Amino acid sequence: MDIDFTSTGHIVGIDLGTTNSLVAFMDLTGPRIIPGADGDKLVPSVVSILPDGGIVVGNPARELLLTQPERTVYSVKRLMGRGLEDVKDELKLFPFHVAAGSEAVIQLELGGRKYTPPEISAMVLRQLKQNAEDYFGAPVDKAVITVPAYFNDAQRQATKDAGRIAGLEVLRLVNEPTAASLAYGLDKRENGTVAVYDLGGGTFDISILKLHDGIFEVLATNGDTHLGGDDIDNLLLRIALEDLQSEWGEDLSQDNEGVQRLRRAVIQAKEKLSFVPSAAIELEYRGKHYQREITRELFDKLITPIVDRTLGPCRDCIKDAGVGVDQIDEVVMVGGSTRIPLVRSAVENLFRSKPHTELNPDEVVALGAAVQAAILSGTVDNKLLLDVTPLSLGIETMGGVVSKLIHRNSTIPASATENFTTGVDGQTNVLIHVVQGERELVKDNRSLARFDLKGIDPVQAGIARIEVRFLIDANGILSVTARDQRTGKEQTVEVKPSYGLTDEQVEQMIQESFEKAEQDFADRQVREQRVEADAILLAVEKARKHAAYFELAEDERAAIEQAVHELLVVYNTDDHHLIAAKIEEVNQATIKLAENMLKGTQT
Amino acid sequence: MTDYYAVLGIPRGLSLSLDDLQQRYYALSRELHPDRFMQKPEAERQRALDMSSALNDAYRTLKDPIKRAQYLLTLEGFDIGEQRTKDVPPELLEEVFELNMALEEMRGGDHSARPQLEQAEKNFTGMLVETDQQLQSLFVQFDASQSFDASQSFDASQSKDALAQVRNVLNRRKYIQNLVSEVERTLSPNPQAPIPAL
Predict the structure, then answer these.
(1) A138, exposed or middle or buried, with CB in 10 Å at 0-12, 13-18, 19+?
(2) How many CB pairs under 8 A join A and B?
(3) Of A152, A213, A415, the CB nearest to B53
(4) Is the whole model's pTM more than 0.90, yes or no?
C-alpha cells in the first residue's frame, strides 16, 4: 500500500451505531479501533442525563438505563431524521418521553430539558472524539461517519448535524456496507464481486460491489432502516412480559425499570443462543424470580419473519446490480445480528455460498471508516469508493405524480437538470416539492423538502425559464441550485426541509454545545484545582505535628496559617484561577518548612 | 447540454466497447472524484464535484445502449417525445387489442385468460429481443455513416435517416416494454411493491 503519514492532523472514522459506536484510525499497520478509558472498544450508544444536568455516555449510561430509565436514551439512531408519525409505534417501547410540540422535529424530554435526536447522537460523538483525543494527546476535529446505506436524505442530514453539534467537521458520510467492503477488500480481496449483508441493531443493508484494482464500485444497494436486532429484542420482550402477566399477575410493561431489566435479560439470552442450543431469560426483580428457557429451535421459529424481511431487499438488490447469484464471489457479514445462526443459514441459502464471518462484525464498519478517512487525507491514494444513492429522487408534478430525476443506484455524485416555468402572469416564485422513493404517487414517497425559487421576473405565464439543477453529493445529500435562463441570473432557493433541523437550529445547538463544553471544561478545571488544594491542605495538616513546624519563627507560622485560611475561603468558589493562586501562596509560605522537614529526615 | 462523449473522451457513436468505457470511467474517476480534493481549496472541491457528477451521469447514460441512443438522439436535435409511445404501432394493432381483452378478463378475476397472457408475454418478450437486434444493426449503420472522412462524398442525410430509424425502433421498444410490464403486473400482482424507507 502507498501510505504517506507525513501529513498531520488525525481524521478519525466513526461507526455511529444503533446499539454501539466505535472510533477508529489508520496508521502504518492498518486501521485500528481506539478504545475508551475503560478499555472497551465498543461505546454503547446510550446517553443518560443526570439530575444535576451532567451527561453520561456509554457503559455507565447503560447501567443508568436500569436505575433512571426515563432519563436515559438508547437506540436514538432509529429516530434520526424522522417525523413523529414514522416512529410513534416504537416510541411506546422506549422508557423516555417525547416532548410536546414535536411535530417538525422529534424532541425527547429528559429531566426537564428537551433534546433532539441529533443532539443525543452528538453526545455519543463527543465521547468518541474525547476517546480519540485522549489516545492521540491532540485535538481531533475531523471525521468520517458511517450511515446505513439505505438512509434517506433527512437521516443523512441529521447525522451530519450531529457531527457539527459535537464539534466535528464531517468530511464524509460513508455507507456502512461500503465501509465494511473497504476493510474487507484491504484484507482479503482485490478483484471480484462482493455482497455485503449488514444486519445491525436497528438497520438492515445489502450492497453489491464490484472490486477492481482498488476501485470499490457499488452496483446496487437496498435495505430497511427499521429492521435489526432491536426488533428481535422487542419480540422476546413481549413474550416475557406476557409470561409475567400470567405468572406474577403483573403488568410489568408500565414499570420502566422492570422493563429495562427484562430487556437486558432478553438480550443476554439472545446473544447466548448464537452459541448454545438453549438459553434462559432470567429475571430477579422485587423479590420475585422469573425464568424461561428458550431453545434454538423456538428462537429460530420466532425470528423467522424478521430474518425473512431481509431476503426481499437482497433479491431486489441482486436484480438491480444486474448480476446473477453465481457471479457473486463472496458474501461478507457485518453487524452483531449476523452472529445468529439462522441469519447465516438464510444468507447461505439465498446466495448459495458460505458467508464470510471471520471479520469481527462489530468492528469492520469502523475500520472501513478509518480507511476512508485515510483516503480523504491523501495517505491512501490507490483506493477509491464509488457509491450510489439508495433511493430515487423525484419532484411532484400535476396530480400528485412523481417525476423521477435521479434513479436509485445512480453513482454519486449525480445530477439532473430540469426546466420550470410559471403558470400565472406575473408569478415571481415557484415551489418545487422534492420527494425520495420508488413509488409513483407523491403521497407514497418520502417528502424531502420544498424548494422555493424566488425573485423570478414577473412575466407572462409560461415565459419564464428557470433551470434547476439537483445535485446529490458524495455524502448522498441533495443540494439545489437554480438559474433564470432568460436573465442568466442565479436564483435564490429557499429550502424547507420536511423533517429535520434548519441551519439556524443547528447553529444554535452548536453554540449551546460549545457553551456547554466550556462549562464542562471549567467544571473539570475547578475540580482538578480542588484536588490539588486537598493534597496541599492535607500536607500542611500533617506538617503541623512535625518538629520542624515549631522551629519556624512565629511570623512564618502566621504566614502559613493565613495562606491556608485564604485557600479555604476560595475553595468552594468556581474560579479555578483563584484557587490555583491561593494554592501557590500556601506553597510559597511553606517552602522553608518543607526544606526543614526534608533536612530533619536526612539527619 | 453537457456532451457526455466529450466527458469520457470518445467520439460520438452508438456502438461502443463497454470494456473501454469502463476503463476510461475508472481512470477518470481516480482523477476527478471529490475524495481526491478534500485537502484542496473550496473552489477546486466544487469543480471536482461538478466534474465527477458529470462523469457519473455520462457513464450511466452511455453504458446503457437504450439510454445512449436516446441521449444521442437528443444531442442530434431529435425530439423523442414520450407521447409517441402511446400510439400503437400499426402492425401490432390486432395483437394489442386481443391482449387488452385478456388483461381485462384477468383483472376481472377470470383466470382462464392466464395461458393466453403467458403466451402473449412470451411473444412480446421475443419482440423485444428482435428490436434489440434491430437497434444493434442500426447502431453499426449510423456509426459507419459518421466515419466517412471528408474526402469521400459524405451524405449527411444518411446518418439522419439512420437516427430517425433508431428513434422509431426505440419508440416501438418502449411500447412493447410497457406491454410486457403490464402483463407481468397483471399475472403476478405484487401488493407489497417496494415501499421506500419512511
Answers:
(1) exposed
(2) 89
(3) A415
(4) no
